[in-house]
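Anyone opening a protein record will find just a pair of labelled lines. The record below illustrates this layout.
***
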Amino acid sequence: MNCAGTGQDGDVRAGATLSYTSNNDGTITDNNTKLVWEKKTNCSGGTHCVNDVYTWDAAFAYVAALNAANFAGHNDWRLPNIKELQSIINYQYIGPAVSPEFNDCGNGSCTVFDGFYWSSSTFALDPAFAWKVFFHDGSVVVRIDGLDKTGARYVRAVRGGL
């Protein structure tokens, strides 16, 4: 159905255009929210490696290590809450559902195309679980994968914001 001139959401298409700056210090800045995101590189077994997975508790330890190392000149990195993590989803893409700045491995910024990423947000109905984003299609999930906080998932640290 054509909705032109109806004032419906599909007609208005309101909202800020996604805008990111890939920085030379291993980070990406969201120009709308002012959040600064850790870039992940195509490696495993070290800091900033896209393929490394963590339990929920280990994810917080990973972020603490970034702070101890003063990553990118800052020590206020954190595990993003579910709204922050969902804010980098770009539904124009799939596998992964992120803007190119978050999936340009040649420039040191990769996203696992079929991976669940931890948020810091605990599931209120069952505190053994935390909210996650499935970056293949941008789904926000909690128990669909069956893994509670002891399961291993991916991590992307964030800092700043409005």
Q: What stands out?
A: The chain has three helices and seven strands. The longest strand covers residues 116-122. The chain has one domain: 22-160.
